[in-house]
Amino acid sequence: MFKIFVMHGIIYFVMTIFDESLILETINMIKLHNFDIRTVTLTISLRDCLSENVCVVCDKIRRKLDKYAKNLVRYANEIENDYSIPIVNKRIAVTPISLVGESCDFKDYVKIAKTLDECAQNLGIDFIGGYSALVEKGCTQGDLALIESIPEALACTQRLCSSVNVASSKAGINMDAVLKMADTIKKSADLTSSQDGLGAAKLVVFCNSVSDNPFMAGAYCGYGEPECALNIGVSGPGVVRAAVSDLDSKADLGVLANKIKQTAYKITATGELVGRKLAGKLNVPFGVIDLSLAPTPAIGDSVAQIFQAMGLEHAGAHGTTAALAMLNDAVKKGGIMASSYVGGLSGAFIPVSEDAGMIEAAANGYLTFDKLEAMTCVCSVGLDMIAIPGETPVSTIAGMIADEMAIGMINKKTTAVRIIPAPGKKAGDRVVFGGLLGEAPVMKVNTLSSDKFVQRGGRIPAPIHSLNN
């Protein structure tokens, strides 16, 4: 029997008689299959922090972040204890800093970067995102100054994350920005060579970036977002893998897709409950729930292992792209039935260094760079956390970015590139970042030159479907 009640416009069904199987299922999701709230991300607008004086800007930022985020970690810990659901990361995303710093007479973006990092540390925040620029159609002086400052900013901070959007389905691909970002990635890795190029692991290049994404390194508070809001990122690849494994091995793919949808529904409903509780305590609006299956290096918390549960010998086998397409679609369908506020990216991530199964597949040669690129046509994001040889030319990195931006532009989806040209490393070596960023083998890349193509510059025009008004 069920009791029905409504909270914040959401209908909840509560069992009046305990069902042992449901209790055990919830416990197993958390304890055995690594279900967690991957991140609670507070988006905070800094549009009222502008000034001609960079010191004034920094002071305004400190006051604004303290006003809204001073209780984020404490309240998140209380919710975690109340519901016994792990909340792994507490994060902040702010207005793209290229806009905030552009008002200054002297554009000292690194000073702003250090201020953001200091605030994150004082507030107990794991990561702060928004050291960002949106340049798909061209760059302002502020955009250029921010991009040029990224390597130093990421090298001298611990918790800062950066993103730059260089393409969209409406504007096309800004190839000047693509080449600039390839050089920025290389410099960011080189300045953090003692950490295997960690700076590049905190930097992502986007096509069609979204302003309510709670996941790093790409989170920022978009222009259309409210003054402050709470976005939730849930994660449950281990839960989905267990659900698929429990099915009869002869169950057809339609049955398998329905099972994934049912599991995604449970994950999403749980995440929204936690998110709304925390937003209420903080007295800010609930934003979106991003139900991306974000893996970790922990055993059993792997998207690649879902493919194995589906019947593939390993990630990288022929059929992997089809399996990923079905997984991504089923997760979205299940989530949208559980919540009217699904947003962000939502689907399945395939970061190499952050997924134990992907790490194994790449190390054994089952997954190549080209296969990963093919998989990005149907996954949530793109070429994510891939280590490549440190000697890879800037022009080759620019070609990688351009290819991924083209996939996003043509398919009207978000795609991204977060690659690490590991200083001093060659194919077959290993990089180690630790924590959620994990470790990865350095992958072999195509050595054919892209130089003359990427040096042409200009803008690759938007596709015909951009004219849809």
Q: Could you walk me through the main structural features you see in this protein, from its secondary elements to its overall organization?
A:
With 469 residues, the chain is of the alpha/beta class. It has two domains: 41-207, Alpha-Beta Barrel (Anaerobic Ribonucleotide-triphosphate Reductase Large Chain); 232-458, Anaerobic Ribonucleotide-triphosphate Reductase Large Chain. It is 43% helix and 19% strand. It has 16 helices and 15 strands. The protein has helices at 20-31, 54-69, 72-83, 97-101, 109-123, 141-155, 175-191, 198-201, 237-246, 253-282, 303-310, 320-338, 356-363, 369-375, 394-411, 451-454, and strands at 2-7, 10-15, 36-44, 87-94, 127-134, 160-168, 172-174, 203-207, 228-235, 286-290, 383-389, 415-422, 430-432, 439-441, 459-460. Helix 2 (54-69) runs parallel beside helix 5 (109-123), helix 3 packs across helix 10 (253-282) and helix 5 packs across helix 6. The chain is globular. The termini are far apart. The relative contact order is 0.13.
